[in-house]
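Job type: complex structure
Entries:
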Amino acid sequence: MENAGSARTYLTARDAGLINCTTCGRVSSADETACARCGAALASRDTQSLQKVWAWWIAGIIAFVPANLYPMLKTATLGTETESTLLGGILELVHHGSLGIAAIVFFASIVIPASKFLAVAYLALSIGRPSRFTAHRRHQIYKVVEFVGRWSMIDVFVVAILTALVQLGSAASIHPGIAAVSFALSVAFTMLSAQSFDARLIWDADKEPHT
Amino acid sequence: MENQAVVLTPQDKADLQDLVACPVCDTLARYSSVPQGGQGRCARCHHVLIMPRENAMTRIVMLAVTGAILMVSAVSFPFLTIETHGLRQQASVLDTILAYSDGLMVPLSLAMAALIVVLPLMRLAAILYTVAPMALWHHAARGAAQAFRLAETLKPWAMAEVFIVGVAVALVKVGGLATLTIGPAFWAFAALVLVTVMNDNFMSSLIIWKTLEARGRI
């Protein structure tokens, strides 16, 4: 894990003519199609990985557009109804002075989804091309993307809690807007996109010993 | 886990049992014992391969049972109450899930139920089904491999902890406008999140797979 200076070559399962099970780590011989330990389907590399990544990625982008354009929240106070979009809700929080919460929501629902799209696209494009970043760096990017994806769902939950809670008759009531659905879909699609990515592809290009 | 230059002939498949391949970078390594509380990492990409913990199985069973009980109480106890100008509204976790039950948004209600309650419970049940028989009677139950594979697949989709952060954000949003009372369900949910995190810390999936294979009828 350390000694960055030593140049080492690593023997991969594929080079050894074996197949690695990504579910349970068992090593099987190349003629097996299902893992004898955990039953998962075996493939030395998921050859359709990038296709799946891009398909879910595009679906995610498509769902992300209405999520930002349509209202996320409809607030009715004493007869007047206001609709607020994702960005509008954040601006409202800033207006109220809750900068910390505004920052959390801004990160979870705008910055994270947007940078996730960029990061996944970058990783997918960097396969089979010379890359500015080392495999280690790209693997770190992938881990962050995978970890962070589900946290974007926060906003959908916040809207649900507000809707359930703020039902005070004519004084104040909150209803969800249609953007919540497309936002949830967008988060789910990007999670699937990141999961379809075969991390082993990052390392295949990194054959020469790194320094 | 150091990776020696392993010379393999196709016929010694039995020898493959000693090998482990990193799921991230495909590098082969010898399966070696790691001291309790330590971590065995892949030499090339540093991915944590195994992470043995003392009495891990007993602890996993206990934490999973605790988690299931907490989830049941989180769903049945009062969750949040809001009060302002004599008006009062109580919301349970179920009300929160049903928030999207209007017209076009019904599927989102189903998804909420799945993400917050159903999938976390299913995951706990699958973990219990895998580990409890091995902890109690040494042998694994029939279908334990499928159950554990399900638990691993569900992991990213069980979002109880995301939900609890969502609750915190919502509370701040309405906190200034009305009086809020936090019910026992909230604390049950918060405890559930802690229990889940601890549980995941004791679970090293590679070790569970190895144990399942050694003891089970896979």
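Summary: Chain B has two domains: 13-50, 56-215. Chain B has a mean pLDDT of 84.
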